[in-house]
Amino acid sequence: MKSGFVAIIGRSNVGKSTLLNTVIGEKVAITAGKAQTTRHRIQAVYTDERGQIIFLDTPGLHKARNKLGDHMVKVAKRTLDDADVILWVVEPDRQPGRGDKAVGELLEKAGVPVILVVNKMDKVDHGELLERIDTYYEAFAPDEIIPLSALNGKNIERLKDLLFDYFEEGPLYYDADTLTDQSVKQLAAEYVREKAMRFLQEELPHGVTVYVDQMKKRKGRNLWDVDATLVCERASHKGMIIGKQGAMLKKIGKHARADIEQLLDGKVNLKLWVKVRKDWRNDEFSIRDFGYEEK
User: Fold this and answer.
1) How do 223-232 and 267-276 pair as beta strands?
2) Which residues of 194-211 are buried (b: 16+ CB within 10 A; e: fewer)?
3) In which band, very low, low, confident or very high, does the pLDDT at 19 lie, cut at 50, 70 and 90?
4) In a 3-state reduction of DSSP, which class is residue 15?
5) Distance of alpha carbon 69 from alpha carbon 67, whole angstroms
6) I need a surface site. Which of 11, 78, 81, 231 has the fewest CB within 10 A?
7) DSSP codes joined into one string, 173-219
8) Given pLDDT bands bounded at 50, 70 and 90, which one contains residue 294?
């Protein structure tokens, strides 16, 4: 059997979480099409007859504008120390810029094989894709380059084969049926935050976090009572999250409930609350209180 740890790194919104979900075959990371959706280091496990790949999905590398942003960047960088292989995810319709140069320098210091993943390969024609691959290879000389589409699954099996080629023989670190290190409560909270990210105005979602107050199954019934709280930074934001006559909060709850029901394999009575904690992203206590401490 072979096994190894694989860090997924890249700039915000390049499809790292979508890639992770596609490889694992289950929704273990939320996706919202907006920068800074992933805030935690997410550990996910893929197991087959060859062995085990433990993926470490990281927050996107970005210019931090608050203490939460600082935390996210530190988590992404420190994850590299735990990796046997690094997947650096980029997009084919962007030329490498200063941010990519900074990532390249970071990966050079890591001292482990780097596989450049050119995601969203279907966004450009074949000639442009080859041109972008050449550009990245000349600039950074990664150990491997693989174009793929995380959204439609193209070349995902090839990526798995490539990763196992780099692994040494080793133990299975997790049971074969383990998919993620996240608890059910954590996943439920993230599903609610995902819907807030998708439905709220562009800047507002970045100041929202979610925690689950309770999750209890009713005796003798396949029905769960789930209470969750959305925390925002300003009273005006609270009004936007609730919406006119509660319409926005109902919309977030309706779509989140569907994901939580699939997670729990049962019916869900979801109640959402909204609270204000002023400027919590710049408060160390709040950052730790909401579970963003470094592990």
Assistant:
1) parallel
2) bbbbbbbeeebbbbbbbb
3) very high
4) coil
5) 5
6) 81
7) -S-TT--BS--HHHHHHHHHHHHHHHHS-SSGGGG-EEEEEEEEEPT
8) low
Residue 35 has pLDDT above 80, yes or no: no
- Cα separation of 271 and 225, whole Å? 8
Distance CA 217, CA 269 (A): 10
Query: Shortest CA distance to 84 belongs to which of 3, 9, 147, 179?
Result: 3
Higher pLDDT, 72 or 177: 177
Q: CA 271, CA 269: separation in Å to the nearest integer?
A: 7
Assigned token pair, 259: 């994901």
Residue owning tokens 């969750």: 228
Dig out the tokens for 44 from the structure.
């996910």
Residue 63 pLDDT class (50, 70, 90 cuts): confident
Cβ–Cβ < 8 Å for 19, 150: yes
Structure tokens at 267: 């019916």
With bands split at pLDDT 50, 70 and 90, how would you rate the model's confidence at 99? confident
Residues 6+ apart with CB under 8 A from 289: none
CB-based burial, 235-254: b 16+ in 10 Å, e otherwise = eebbeebbeeeeebbebbbe
If one counts every other C-beta atom within 10 angstroms of the C-beta of residue 212, the result is: 19
All residues at 6 or more sequence positions from 193 whose CB lies less than 8 Å from its CB, including other chains = 30, 205, 208, 209, 210, 230
- Give CA–CA dist 109/282, Å, rounded: 30
Q: What are the phi and psi torsion angles at 256 (to 5°)? A: -70, -40
User: What kind and span of H or E run contains 116?
Assistant: strand 114-118
Instruction: Please report how many Cα atoms fall inside a 13 Å half-sphere around the Cα of residue 291, on the Cβ side.
Output: 15
* pTM assigned to the model: 0.89
DSSP code, position 280? G
